[in-house]
Amino acid sequence: MPKKIRLGILGGGGDSLIGVLHRVASFINDNYEIAGAVFNADFDESLNFAKEIDVPVNRIYKDFDTLVEEELKLPEDERIQVCSILTPNFLHFPMARKLLDNGFHVICEKPMTTTYEEALILQKAKIKSKKVFAVTHTYTGYPMVRQMREMIKEGALGKIHKVDAQYYQGWINTIIHDKKKRASVWRLDPKKAGISSCMGDIGVHAFNMIEYTTGLQIKSLLCDFNYLYGDNQMDVDGTVLIRMDKHVKGVIRASQVATGEENGLSIAIYGEKGALKWEQEKPNFLYKLSDTEPLQVYRPGHAYNSALSLDGTKLPPGHPEGIFDAMANIYLGMARAIRGEKYNDGEFPTMQDGVRGLNFIESTVASHKQGNIWVNLD
Question: Which residues form the Gfo/Idh/MocA-like oxidoreductase N-terminal domain (predicted)?
């Protein structure tokens, strides 16, 4: 086993769900060790949290700039090799750019930046740095999503006709109907979250899933948002018609006010030979539909699955795996790339996925604000 990769973590302290997800994922395949961090903007809270999770405090830094400065003073074989950015959206770009410029690999939460312009700048920085960059579209790590991708790539559906992706949540319901609450949550603050809440946070996952599984790119879209209240500047619900080719069309439906919904991401791809369906809340089932054959159900861990799917499966058939394992598969692929090992290009979302995501988010906003018109993506 090669020596563990030295991981730095920015954000994700305290009771942060995303922090737990990334830390556990990094440990699952024994490829990483936390070497340094800024878990919280408050230094004392960061130190206390490090003690709580048993991370040595000698490389817990007071802020991000200090982390970079102090780590660069260390010998190359001791300093952090890759940093995970788990902060609010507005910090992603300045942190990622400085890390790349100073020779660190990057794992970044989505959206990668708050604007498409920033994403293009970051792309140039990444090319110049020659470092590895992953955007954590976590759901691409599920074995059955990877199986879906490989089956479509091998022609199991034939020509694609129609795509349908949905991501429904209801959590903002407890906030949006209270004027004081909706004015104080960073997800609804464009200065911190960017220009979109619903599409920027969850709709972009549905977008990414479509392009990841089909291998096609969305070329144009028409979007209609719902803000619910006049003083709310951020979309909390939206429907997007998409065109991928002349005869390949579909829809992305996303909502943060879908009452009672939990984490309802689902995708269906329809082709001339059949269709494939997958739901995030039932991640171990991939359904293949046909006009002429009975319904087929694919499950993880079986020899009939693709090499990419099996590589992301850690347990024998019948042992459920979930979101931690999906994120762990992204960290595993990233570890292979950092070490210069051979890996499948579907093992982790890249900088290009981040750029595409920002292009999608800004295009949805432009489409809605210009009167629900068709907008072309780059």
Answer: 30-137
* Residue 75 domain boundaries: 5-138
Verdict on whether the full-model pTM lies above 0.90 = yes
C-alpha 72: how far from chain center: 29
Contacts of 169 (CB under 8 A, 6+ apart): 202, 255, 256, 258, 261, 262, 263, 264
37 and 148 share one domain? no
**206 and 58 together in one domain:** no
Give the strand pairing for 32-38 and 5-11: parallel
Asked whether 166 and 278 are in contact (CB, 8 A), the reply is no
Q: Are residues 267 and 363 in the same domain?
A: yes
pLDDT beneath 70, residues of the chain = 1-2
Selection from 88, 85, 214 nearest residue 158 by Cα: 214
Of 112, 138, 164, the domain-final residue? 138
Q: pLDDT tens digits, residue range 99-139?
A: 999 999 999 999 999 999 999 999 999 999 999 999 999 99
